[in-house]
Amino acid sequence: MYAHPEIHSHLARQRQVDLVRRPRGAQRAPQASLELGPLVEAAKAGDRQAWELLVTHFTPKLRSVIRGYRLGEADVDDIVQETWTAALAHIDRIRVPEAFGGWLLVTARRASLRVIERSRREVVASDEHLPNDVTERTPDSALLEDEDRIAVNTAVERLPERQSTIVRALLLDPGTSYADLAETLRIPIGSIGPTRERALSRLRRELAPI
Fold first, then answer.
1. Is the alpha carbon torsion for 19, 21, 22, 28 positive or negative?
2. Tell me, what DSSP letter sits at residue 95?
3. What structural domains does the chain harbor?
């Protein structure tokens, strides 16, 4: 898997520190709190030290979350690396620096679920005797759906007032006609379509997958 050289270097150093300082089964000492806002902004500007601090601070939590999916250490390493590579490529999309940690965790969870789904498909393809009533909805996928729903609601709240109002009305009742919506919201019917398209275009940008 490709990784940016600097991210790979930071992760390698962090992995060495983790192996040397933390014996098997030992508790990790609490990390000092960071001033996340300035640090993320510095990382956006390409500050190497800021990146190293972020990697050092968040990697243990990422590993803990990924291990919760009962993946092997090789998969854990790959997903951590993939998550930080995505962060390097997309950190400029994070408008609220304090949300950086949550963004990392969601990214790692999505990558973990992709690994699990890929493994499941490989098993199904290799064993035609598996039961046919396997459900695709798991507690992990349900959690991800909840997180996505929260992300959508948050993005809608950031829309301009008229765009937000129209989007919410259409989400609540997708079958609502423009005529009924114009009468309910007391706005010109001709403005609904263009306003809706501007809102959806903005939502697509903010919620674009990594």
1. negative
2. S
3. 1-23+33-126 (1.10.1740.10), 138-210 (1.10.10.10)
Instruction: Note the pTM of the prediction, 2 decimals.
Output: 0.51
Calculate the alpha carbon distances from 71 to 117, 125, 165 in Å: 12, 20, 43
- Give every CB contact of residue 36 below 8 A, 6+ residues apart in sequence: 97, 98, 100, 101
CA 148/CA 168 separation, integer angstroms: 16
DSSP for 60-83 reads HHHHHHHHTTT--HHHHHHHHHHH
Tens digit of pLDDT for each residue in 108-156?
Answer: 988 998 888 887 776 655 555 544 444 444 444 555 555 566 667 777 8
d(CA 71, CA 182) in angstroms, rounded, equals: 52
